[in-house]
Amino acid sequence: MMEPCWSVLSSFVVRLPIDLDGIFVHDSPLRWAARDSSKPRRVGTEEWVLHADEAWSRTNLDAANEDVLRSLTEAFFRAVGVPARSPAFASLHRWRYATPRSPQDREVVVDRDR
């Protein structure tokens, strides 16, 4: 059984005043956020990838895109403790089958017939 995950890519014209490049979040609609623009050879806009909590994603699986984007963006700014601002660009993706509910208890699974 797989769990869903709402994902957001938000771009900002200027660098956000956040002293970290990635966080895990608890007790929030947001589970994880990473400054995508901090990767090597990434220049230009400030970009953050946001992943929603599995339970929140499951509950909001069929929510309107605008509501999901607003909720996750608000959760992000609460988590990092800076005033909210609107992204110059945002893209939203709903992964219906993102993560396994209970991972395999084996390190590797191999199909020997392939």
Write the layout of secondary structure elements.
Layout: E1 2-12, E2 22-24, E3 30-35, E4 46-52, H1 54-59, H2 65-80, E5 89-100
Antiparallel strand pairs: 1-4, 1-5, 2-3, 3-4
Short descriptors:
alpha+beta, single chain, 5-stranded antiparallel beta sheet, 114 residues, globular
Structure commentary:
- By secondary structure, the protein is of the alpha+beta class.
- The chain has one domain (2-100): Polyamine Oxidase, Chain A, domain 2 (Alpha-Beta Complex), CATH 3.90.660.
- It is built from 2 helices and 5 strands.
- The two termini are 24 Å apart.
- The mean pLDDT is 91.
Radius of gyration, in angstroms, nearest whole number: 16 Å
What is the terminal-to-terminal distance? 24 Å
Structural class: alpha+beta
**Total number of strands:** 5
Q: What is the ordering of alpha helices and beta strands?
A: EEEEHHE
**What's the overall average pLDDT, rounded?**
91
Beta-strand content: 25-35%
Number of helices: 2
Quaternary state reads: single chain
Short description:
With 114 residues, the chain is of the alpha+beta class. Helix content is 19%, strand content 34%. The chain has one domain (2-100): Alpha-Beta Complex (Polyamine Oxidase, Chain A, domain 2).
